[in-house]
Write a structure and sequence with these properties.
eleven-stranded mixed beta sheet, about 300 residues
Length: about 300
């Protein structure tokens, strides 16, 4: 992955507010979001494990906390708390499962390294989801040998999501109180930088109806691809700068050579993101709720900011 100036990312990271202890209230990172169905089925739990194991292999030395599957309380990471150990604690039958791990200095602080997944059901209550985050420059500085497009394609092949996204996003603490405190700063960043996504927006059933929005990478399952006319029709109409990567079960729409944040203060819009949004607009869901810090109308406007 080629990358814009690291100064752009550093400026964003240094602009985030801190609390009274000097800990950041939020951060900017590379965020992967996948929404999937049949989350309580054993094959989806296995896929969730496989993705977590892949993520764990890349980020283990930075992870500090994990929610215990039995007590549902945070525990400091220990050597035996591996993905295989997590899987061994799961029953063989259909089961609601979750994985939560992050690298915060404390269990309640934000981290650029975060993995959260929920496999649930039935359809109509909330959507199963999987989210993973990395520092914004992870694939350029820490692991330049890892291609983020190939990573997302691999995870999508395993999980077969309905849809998803990957690119730059605003990460807030998993702790509810600190998440709420970060609300005003998160809102300001999202309104200023249209290329930033809202990490971990909600597990609302609205996402069963279609895609949330676009990012640098937009994951489209087979059902959404069919609604858009199929891979061949999409590829034939792609404007310059957009790529389509197929995988068994769907395809990934790539908007430009690298993620972009944009900046409304300087009228800088990620043009490739706008082109991607036009392509997938017919399969974008109509959100009926509101994001924290936004009223319902503002939430819908933000989701359609590239229209």
């Amino acid at each position: 992955m080629t990358s814009p100036s690291f100064d752009t990312y550093r400026r964003l990271a240094e602009s985030v507010p801190v609390d009274e202890t000097g800990s950041p209230l939020l951060t900017i990172g590379f965020c992967v979001e996948l929404n999937f169905t049949d989350g309580i089925e054993p094959p989806q739990r296995q896929a969730g494990h496989d993705i977590y194991a892949d993520y764990f292999g890349l980020t283990q030395k930075w992870l500090r906390w994990m929610v215990d599957p039995k007590t549902k309380h945070y525990r400091a990471m220990t050597p035996e708390m591996t993905p295989a150990h997590w899987l061994s604690m799961q029953p063989a039958e259909r089961w609601v499962w979750f994985i939560t791990a992050h690298g915060g200095v404390r269990f309640d602080t934000v981290s650029e390294y975060e993995f959260e997944a929920l496999g649930t059901g039935p359809v109509g209550l909330e959507t199963s989801f999987l989210g993973a985050t990395f520092p914004a420059t992870f694939f350029a500085m820490e692991r330049p040998d890892v291609d983020p497009v190939a990573l997302v394609r691999r995870w999508a092949t395993w999980l077969k999501p309905m849809h998803g996204t990957a690119g730059l996003g605003v990460i807030t603490p998993l702790d509810e109180g600190r998440h709420a405190a970060a609300g005003p700063a998160r809102r300001a960043l999202l309104l200023r930088h249209p290329g930033l996504d809202l990490h971990r927006p909600s597990a609302t059933a609205d996402w069963e109806k279609g895609l949330r929005c676009v990012n640098w990478l937009t994951v489209l399952g087979d059902a959404l691809l069919a609604t858009l006319g199929g891979v061949d029709a999409i590829r034939a109409s792609l404007p310059a700068g957009l790529l389509l990567h197929e995988y068994p079960g769907g395809a990934i729409l790539q908007a430009g050579p690298h993620p972009e944040a944009g900046d409304m203060h300087y009228d800088q819009w990620p043009a490739h993101y706008r082109n991607a949004a036009r392509i997938v607009r017919p399969v974008q869901a109509e959100f009926t709720g509101a994001f924290r810090g936004f009223d319902p109308a503002e939430s819908r406007d933000w989701l359609h900011r590239f229209d």
